Amino acid sequence: MAMLGRRRAARPASGTSGLHQRDKAPVREFADGDSVVIERLAHDGRGVAHRTDGKALFIERALPGERVLPAVHRQRKRYDEAHVRELIETSDQRVEPACRHFGQCGGCDLQHFADAGQRQHKLAVLGEHLAREALTLPAAPEVLAADGHGYRRRARLGVKVDAQGGIHLGFRAKGSHHLLDIHQCTILVPRLTALLAPMHHQLAALEAPRHVGHIELIDSDAGATLVVRQLREHAGDRVRWQTFAAAQGVSLAWWLGRDAAQLEWLSAEPELRYRIVADGRDVTLTFAPGDFVQVNATVNQRLIDTALTWLAPDPAARVLDLYAGVGNLSLALACRGGEVLGVEGSPAMVGRLAANARRNDLGNVEARQADLTQVAEVCEVLDWAPSLVVLDPPRDGADIVCTQLAGSAVPQLLYIACDPATLARDAARLVQGGYRITRAAVADMFAQTAHLEAMLLFERGG
Ligand SMILES: C[S@@+](CC[C@H](N)C(=O)[O-])C[C@H]1O[C@@H](n2cnc3c(N)ncnc32)[C@H](O)[C@@H]1O
């Protein structure tokens, strides 16, 4: 990725395009002649360069092609970690970060990088992970993208009272366990961002803010919902929260208790739900606090559209949807008329999947609970004799499932992954078992961060 742009006069790093907000004391300052050129981005979004003595440098918020003067803030045996002391030549892909917390907040890594550059980087990361397993793609992956800001419909903010009694609400600071006060978040959907300032005031008005562990924000078609992790009962603060929820027009629940916390609604219980469209048909999915929900509604819809196009299940299909959650993919695929078995580990979500199928009059969906890390349980669900399998595992991947699928005769598999490393490991197993990768896509589910979602279609034979 050669993206060297115009040459700018050397200037201090502070206050420019995401290079500010770094108060790490350098352990090694480079002399003016020691500038380096960024060769590429590492998978975590840091720029990679090499010193003249050959040691690698991982430089925060530096882009490919840029020439920078680094300041090393951590020395390691095989590489050093650095930030930019001075930006000498700037990439034409560098943009001004939209969020004022960028650089300090641990949430986003790539706000200084143009959207197109971020997506190119994610394509390269997928390719590199696959290459490590000697796998190649038949064609360039499709990119499933949407607006890079205002997309996140769910987030968890930490709450902390410091030794001086200061109350903090925010995300972890980059590379640290410290909580950074967050007043603005450009990647949250606007309805959730608008709650940040009132929540700071609300916490300051509580009698016992130390009883609050964290706050989860959820946006659904029922509006905004706050779920407060309340470690101990406090009658006065209970009323304060209820007053706050009424004034803000949000729903409110407490997870109450230190161990084995119980969910208690302090407002009227909302019906948390979101809508997807499958072949022009509206499907409504309900969920509860704590359930998995894809964070980016628009990219999720594109993922569903792509799954339907690639798999093209007909009414004779037997679709096995593994790691099914509350039925996001199961219900979309069931709209084509075939039999669908959705398998999910959480019993509560299995119940919700079944209820969602009923609510949408999809009598062709069966919901089943199984732990897909257990060989016997995986074999049992594969005995259902699917004609195609969709798997959308958590970051650990689907080791046992892919080992079993590698020896199966299922004609088509669609693997949706949020971790390209475990995807590559599992893909290698499937390819060893005789599958070919026939289509690929990168879904920009987590824009402005280095995280990526990938989809691979596998087919037998050929
Ligand atoms: C990435 S989510 C995908 C959910 C769903 N496909 C969707 O699109 O919303 C992964 C799901 O796998 C479930 N899961 C995690 N570990 C599991 C296991 N060992 N067995 C079965 N399901 C598991 C989680 O509860 C979660 O719902």
UniProtKB/TrEMBL annotation:
Keyword Transport found: no
Keywords from the UniProt entry: 4Fe-4S, Iron, Iron-sulfur, Metal-binding, Methyltransferase, S-adenosyl-L-methionine, Transferase
Residues at which S-adenosyl-L-methionine binds: Q294, Y323, E344, D392
Residues in TRAM domain copies: 24-86
SUPFAM superfamilies in alphabetical order: Nucleic acid-binding proteins, S-adenosyl-L-methionine-dependent methyltransferases
CDD domains: AdoMet_MTases (cd02440)
Active site: C418, C418 (nucleophile)
Family: Belongs to the class I-like SAM-binding methyltransferase superfamily. RNA M5U methyltransferase family.
Protein name (database record): 23S rRNA m(5)U-1939 methyltransferase
